[in-house]
Write a structure and sequence with these properties.
mainly alpha, 3 helices
Length: 72
């Protein structure tokens, strides 16, 4: 699980530039990646893949945890 302790976008100098122009946090990151010559689509595909891998690796444990509840 991802916690809620994070640095806000407007406090990250490299992203604040975009965020202050009205971009969302994701759009700001996307634009920053493009500006430094990275393929944002590839980066987000990697993020999705990593999330999927973590989810699948924890699926058995999540099912076991759910078994203690009557209503799933």
């Amino acid at each position: 699980m991802v916690g809620d302790d994070y640095t806000p976008v407007w406090e990250i100098p490299s992203l604040n530039k975009y965020y202050s122009q009205g971009f969302t946090a994701k759009q700001s990151f996307y634009q920053y990646l493009e500006d430094i010559g990275k393929d944002p689509t590839s980066v987000f595909d990697d993020i999705d893949s990593t999330i999927r891998e973590v989810y699948l690796s924890k699926l058995k444990k999540m099912r076991e945890s759910l078994s203690q509840y009557h209503n799933r």
